[in-house]
Every structure is written in C-alpha cells, then in structure tokens.
Hints:
Layout (H helix, E strand, L loop, with lengths): L5 H27 L4 H12 L8 H8 L3 H13 L3 E5 L7 E5 L1 H36 L4
Antiparallel strand pairs: 1-2
Amino acid sequence: MPRLTRQDFERLLEFRVTLRRFHRWSEDQAQAEGLTHVQHQLLVAIKGHRGGRPPAVGDLAGYLLLRPHSTVELVDRAAAAGLVERTPDEDDGRVVRVRLTAAGDRILHKLTRAHLDRLHELAAVLDELVTKHDAAQRGLA
C-alpha cells in the first residue's frame, strides 16, 4: 500500500467536515419540522424498506443500528406524535409492522426533497476528492 501523504489527510478531513456539516444540517432540518434526527431516520427507514409489507420493528432496529427495545421506544414516541402507526403482521401475530401516517409521509416528503438536493452537493465533493486521490496515486497531481 502506498505511503499516506499530507494530502491524503487533508482530503480525509475535508470529506469528514463536509459529511459532518451535512449531518448537522440534516438535524436542523428535522428539528425545523418538529422531529428529532432519529425520528427522521425512522421515517426514512420505514419508507425506504423494501418488500411488499411495512417493516417490522426488528427491521427498523437493524436499519437504525438500535437495540429492539430502543426501537420500540422510538416507535412509541413517533406513534404518540402521529407520525407512524403499528399494524399486526398478517401471517404472524407476534410481529408488529410499522407504517407512516399521512402526516409522517407529508413531513418525510418535504425533508427528502431538500436532502436529495444537498446529497448531490455532497456527492460532488466526494467525487472531487476521489478524483484528486486517484490522480495523486498515479503521480498526476
């Protein structure tokens, strides 16, 4: 593996700062809509879940990197806020599935439009950093 250069660390710092700025901006956007950043992540996890059925609490715990009991508490708070609702699984009564309410879906759509625009900016920064790194590795920079 090639030796790490000062430029490698500068690029890594630039990327990490850009990523952290995005994260902070995202938290502020969620708060402006009356959500915590974790509630926003929950809504994204529900809407982004693949498959024909809403995600189970265990699916959400995996997406959010939370323990199941912490996920249940998060879903409880989101349900109390009118963002999500629980539904029993059609095949297994022990499984609880979680879906967005109309209010949760509305907020998520608003946040997602802004986030996708911002992610395109982040992708451009990352692309530039990777291009610079690749050029440096080939001795072009």
